[in-house]
Amino acid sequence: LSTWGAVPAGPPDAILGITEAFKADKDPRKINLGVGAYRDENGKPYVLNVVKKAEERITAAKMDKEYLPITGLASFTQNAAKLAYGADSEPLKQNAIAVAQSISGTGALRIGGAFMARHYPHIKAIYLPTPTWGNHIPLFKDSGLEVRRYRYFDSKTVGLDFAGMKEDLKNAPEGAIVLLHACAHNPTGVDLTQQQWKELSDLVAEKQLFPFFDMAYQGFASGSTDRDAFAVRHFVSQGHRIALCQSFAKNMGLYGERVGAFSLTTQNEEEGKRVDSQIKIIIRPMFSNPPLHGAHIANTILSDPELYQEWEGEVKGMAGRIINMRERLYDLLTHELKTPGEWGHIKSQIGMFSFTGLQTEQCKALAEKAHIYMTMDGRISMAGLNGSNIEYFAQSVNAAVR
Ligand code: PLP
């Protein structure tokens, strides 16, 4: 008998399966709305101009390939923290943030999950929104935390179930960990308003919950890295100690380079140093130290005022193209095609994804009849739409819902 004879075949990844089906489809009108990566107006992957410039500088500097320290490139992690918390953030000014470079956002979540499982002194249960990014669930379970859920999305209004969210968090045990998507909630595209964030911050304080932020899309939601950091900065300004996971996959288009950061705000510099020493102890047997190249790219952009300004423009450009697609799609469905149903959520949702409200049967029909691929929960990546395919997409949706 083979050693692995009893290993059962696992289910294929839902999102990668869509890409397979898309690739196999020979119809020229086909559209892939499953992928979570930005596409330009021609439907092509986009390498930011500032990334090309940063790479030229790195090549010219003939840098060596030595190992980074366990928590990564120090200038990069400082710049990443500044980007997220804001230059005038109190814990940043007091050197009270322990920050480590991570294998993009996923790796940051995993370091954070492991740290909470080992050192968090209260109940080791994390509350995740329903729905959430699918990977959150196995990721926190594998980290050793108990996964629980709170209501987030209301399918009737295709919007936020704020009352349900508050009720579930009020009923959570004191000290529980709560995962919050800082901006551009994946998969729904539905975010809290600034007023709702303030209310939530009070509730989190009352219940002494621990806010654990996943910020995978800073800048990508509104086009402004400051505006998208509102929730994180508000919580910190209210005196919350937080965990924060950052990714540079989307806002710098560094997907495959795996650039991210994990941080914890602490009481003071001395506590920060102790926490930092324990983050190192978690990382060392996990991956020893993080990769070099992507961190140099991000750091070159974040530390040079000229490149930084150009980067802000490019982030705005990507977010703006997505916002234009939302407006165009809404107009096509509502005004031009008079498609049955209410489509306002297409415009009010934010970030790369939109929960269209399309039902599984309609998604299947779109794949089979119109060669349009998306996840079966009706989520589309707005970045997959462009001037050449949006009319065909709207007509196909119109036909599918009639
Ligand atoms: N968190 C959320 C909510 C995401 O949507 C993603 C990517 O899709 C990630 C984290 C992590 O992505 P990465 O590991 O590529 O930075």
UniProtKB/TrEMBL annotation:
Entry cofactors: pyridoxal 5'-phosphate
Keywords from the named record: Aminotransferase, Pyridoxal phosphate, Transferase
Coiled coil (UniProt feature): none
InterPro entries, A to Z: Aminotransferase_I/II_large, Asp_trans, NHTrfase_class1_PyrdxlP-BS, PyrdxlP-dep_Trfase, PyrdxlP-dep_Trfase_major, PyrdxlP-dep_Trfase_small
Catalytic activity: L-aspartate + 2-oxoglutarate = oxaloacetate + L-glutamate
A biological process term (GO) from this entry: L-aspartate catabolic process
EC code(s) of this entry: 2.6.1.1
Statement: the UniProt record of this protein carries the keyword Nucleotide-binding: no
GO cellular component: mitochondrion
Enzyme class name: transferase
Domain Aminotransferase class I/classII large: from-to ranges: 29-396
GO molecular function, one term: pyridoxal phosphate binding
Keyword Transferase: yes
Subunit structure: Homodimer.
Family: Belongs to the class-I pyridoxal-phosphate-dependent aminotransferase family.
NCBIfam families: PRK09257.1
Name of the protein this chain belongs to: Aspartate aminotransferase
Protein source organism: Pisolithus tinctorius Marx 270
